[in-house]
């Protein structure tokens, strides 16, 4: 099993000197050892996966496709309709709409104020520039 991460620095390719060939061979051996470890871990993972599937089938559990767990907007859910029909939900939706309308109104007002301030600043800058000329 992999005990600690091994740092492999990618330096210059071997240039024929005994030291660089030795370093290259050591790095190659480390990489091969890491690959062997990864293979062993994937084999163990495969065995665990197969064992889990086997246990699920023995207990009568059926495989559920992941796609079936994703709720779609068009799916009919009776619990969801009950929530929508409740008075508290309806009131909360109305309040939310009112607040959103107020926010939109305030945003429009802020935009008008910002545009007005920009025009004033532009006019001031124009006057100052004309005064310098």
TrEMBL record:
Subcellular location: Nucleus
One GO CC annotation: mediator complex
Positions with biased composition (Polar residues): 12-24
GO biological process, one term: positive regulation of DNA-templated transcription
Signal peptide from the UniProt entry: none
GO molecular function ontology, one term from the record: transcription coregulator activity
Top-rank taxon: Eukaryota
Principal cellular location given in the protein's record: nucleus
Job description of the protein: Component of the Mediator complex, a coactivator involved in the regulated transcription of nearly all RNA polymerase II-dependent genes. Mediator functions as a bridge to convey information from gene-specific regulatory proteins to the basal RNA polymerase II transcription machinery. Mediator is recruited to promoters by direct interactions with regulatory proteins and serves as a scaffold for the assembly of a functional preinitiation complex with RNA polymerase II and the general transcription factors.
Keywords annotated in UniProt: Activator, Nucleus, Transcription, Transcription regulation
Protein name per its UniProtKB record: Mediator of RNA polymerase II transcription subunit 30
Similarity annotation: Belongs to the Mediator complex subunit 30 family.
Positions of region (Disordered): 1-27
């Amino acid at each position: 099993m992999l005990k600690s991460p091994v740092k492999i620095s990618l330096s210059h390719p071997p240039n024929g000197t005994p030291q660089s060939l030795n370093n290259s061979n050591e790095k190659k051996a480390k990489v091969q050892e890491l690959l062997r470890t990864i293979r062993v871990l994937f084999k163990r993972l495969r065995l665990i996966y197969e064992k889990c599937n086997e246990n699920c089938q023995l207990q009568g559990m059926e495989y559920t496709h992941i796609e079936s767990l994703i709720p779609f907007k068009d799916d009919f859910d009776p619990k969801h309709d009950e929530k929508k029909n409740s008075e508290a939900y309806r009131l909360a939706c109305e309040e939310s709409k009112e607040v959103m309308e107020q926010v939109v109104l305030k945003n429009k007002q802020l935009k008008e104020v910002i545009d007005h301030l920009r025009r004033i600043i532009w006019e001031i800058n124009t006057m100052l520039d004309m005064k310098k000329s």
